[in-house]
Design a protein that fits this description.
The complex is a heterodimer of chains A (114) and B (114). Helices cover 0% and strands 52% of the residues of chain A. By secondary structure, chain A is an all-beta fold. In chain A, a hairpin with a 6-residue loop joins β9 and β10. The N and C termini of chain A lie far apart (37 Å). The mean pLDDT of chain B is 92. In chain B, a hairpin with a 6-residue loop joins β4 and β5. The chains are: A mainly beta (114), B mainly beta (114). At the A-B interface, β5 and β10 of A face β4, β5 and β9 of B.
Chain lengths: 114, 114
């Protein structure tokens, strides 16, 4: 399965600022996924990032708040913009290696907004 | 609307005994069901899965049972070991369209007492 390097692993940010999270995969993948896990909640899909096209956002998530870049088949970034304390969550990237059974996740970014 | 429900937030089991983790779902279009395991400061890792055409899948100490009529699945760990202590997420997906993304439950924290 793919190996994903995600950074930063954690950050504490001031409200109103932005944070960019990076994910690097050790192999080329068509789709990369960005998830959010709020405290005590399930993992929620934010968007799907395809190389060469705009990301597809899930209901409740918008590009202005969570812009995504996908410059090539091994790399993606998620930016959390104009942060508020409600954005405090764990953010994870994921790739699909071998159909449904091969979803691999990065180690996550624990974001605290103060 | 929570389509995948893990109603028990935590479970504590004695080492060597059986751990049974339950999961319910509401979407009849789900065809694949997966369990992920998550240690602190790490991303979720794939554990075991089952297709809707089966009612049981076994992999070593881990067995997943699916009851489609009841929209219920369970993960059995026998015998439980202290290293199994982690958060376990149930996830489900369908084949096409909006149902093809992974939908997660909130997770169950399993503690295995030595």
């Amino acid at each position: 399965s793919a190996v994903i390097s995600q950074k930063p692993s954690r950050d504490i940010c001031q409200r109103g600022t932005s944070l960019t999270i990076q994910c690097q995969v050790d192999s080329q993948v068509t789709m990369m996924f960005w998830y959010r896990q709020q405290p005590g909640q399930s993992l929620t899909l934010i968007a799907t990032a395809n190389q060469g096209s705009e990301a597809t956002y899930e209901s409740g998530f918008v590009i202005d708040k969570f812009p995504i870049s996908r410059p090539n088949l091994t790399f993606s970034t998620l930016t959390v913009s104009n942060m508020s304390p409600e954005d405090s969550s764990i953010y994870l990237c994921s790739v699909n290696g071998r159909g449904h059974y091969g979803y691999t996740f990065g180690s996550g970014t624990r974001l605290t907004v103060v | 609307d929570q389509q995948v429900k893990q109603n028990s937030p935590s479970l504590s089991v004695q080492e060597g005994r059986i751990s049974i983790l339950n999961c319910d779902y509401t979407n009849s279009m789900f065809d694949y069901f997966l369990w992920y395991k998550k240690y602190p400061a790490e991303g979720p890792t794939f554990l075991i899965s089952i297709s809707s055409i089966k009612d049981k899948n076994e992999d070593g100490r881990f067995t997943v049972f699916l009851n489609k009529s009841a929209k219920h699945l369970s993960l059995h760990i026998v015998p439980s070991q202290p290293g199994d202590s982690a958060v376990y997420f149930c996830a489900a997906s369908g084949i096409t369209g909006a149902n093809s993304k992974l939908t997660f439950g909130k997770g169950i924290t399993l503690s295995v007492r030595p």
